[in-house]
Inverse folding.
């Protein structure tokens, strides 16, 4: 029985090793079980995968015939915000009981064992949070025009096949499905055109917010009974890591100068940014 208990304790310790240091050092973007070199290109590969899938989505959706020309016109822009949040926490909660056995007492002629105990407990915890945010803006004509970004998004090298845990690299991000659904709806219920010769001619704005949350946790709950101390039954060590990878894409017309988002595109993107920030706060430990 003691060998089984030892093996169980050892297994629990092994499972929590990847989370060691949670809350006491700046969090890494990679998980504890990933190779060290994965983190070197993680941000680039995530952004490249989003970039290339966005280009493919625009080209495919623009094949759909609509009453207003290209679904995503060349004078549209794409706003990208990528947020990588890592929250790590550790808590040590020792729980001991001091026991004393007293001499037996007598009650109605019967001998009754007597003892007393007092419980001792405490808690030491720490939380560290890291948030990496990047914003990029591209003109549709510059990234999805004929012959653009062949080297970056060549079919031989993309989709990226790398052994990293981020679902932004491993998953189909669904950008084409999103655009297809909303472009078809906009064709049936299109926005009114601006009066006169004002730009832009098309004002429909599409925003896509995608979030992956991965939680990993572990704990150690040893049980023991000594003289005069005993303990166990509840975890004395808890470690937790919450990783949130979030993508916010906004497709909309450019402003009068053609190099920045129009007011309506920027306002919608900013509103979604604020809502996303409030949502991330609720997810943090």
């Amino acid at each position: 029985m003691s060998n089984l208990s030892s093996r169980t304790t050892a297994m629990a310790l092994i499972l929590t090793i990847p989370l060691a240091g949670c809350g006491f050092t700046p969090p890494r973007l990679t998980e504890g079980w990933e190779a060290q070199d994965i983190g070197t290109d993680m941000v680039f590969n995530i952004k490249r995968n989003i970039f290339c899938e966005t280009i493919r989505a625009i080209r495919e959706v623009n094949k759909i015939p609509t009453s207003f020309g290209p679904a995503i016109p060349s004078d549209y822009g794409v706003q990208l915000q990528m947020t990588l949040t890592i929250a790590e926490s550790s808590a040590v909660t020792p729980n001991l009981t001091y026991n004393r056995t007293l001499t037996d007492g007598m009650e109605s002629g019967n001998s009754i064992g007597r003892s007393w105990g007092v419980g001792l407990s405490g808690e030491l915890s720490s939380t560290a949070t890291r948030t990496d945010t990047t914003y990029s803006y591209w003109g549709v004509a510059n990234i999805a025009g004929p012959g653009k970004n062949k080297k970056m998004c060549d079919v031989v090298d993309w989709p990226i096949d790398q052994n990293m845990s981020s679902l932004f690299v491993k998953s189909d991000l669904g950008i084409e499905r999103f655009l297809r659904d909303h472009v078809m709806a906009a064709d049936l219920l299109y926005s009114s055109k601006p009066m006169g010769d004002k730009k832009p001619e098309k004002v429909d704005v599409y925003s896509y917010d995608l979030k992956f949350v991965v939680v990993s946790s572990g704990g150690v709950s040893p049980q023991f009974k000594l003289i005069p101390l005993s303990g166990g039954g509840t975890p004395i060590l808890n470690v937790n890591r919450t990783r949130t990878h979030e993508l916010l894409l906004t497709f909309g017309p450019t402003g009068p100068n053609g190099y920045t988002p129009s007011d309506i595109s920027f306002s919608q993107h900013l509103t979604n940014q604020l809502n996303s920030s409030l949502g991330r706060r609720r997810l943090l430990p």
Q: What stands out?
A: Residues 46 and 169 are 6 Å apart (CA to CA). The radius of gyration is 29 Å. The chain has a mean pLDDT of 80.
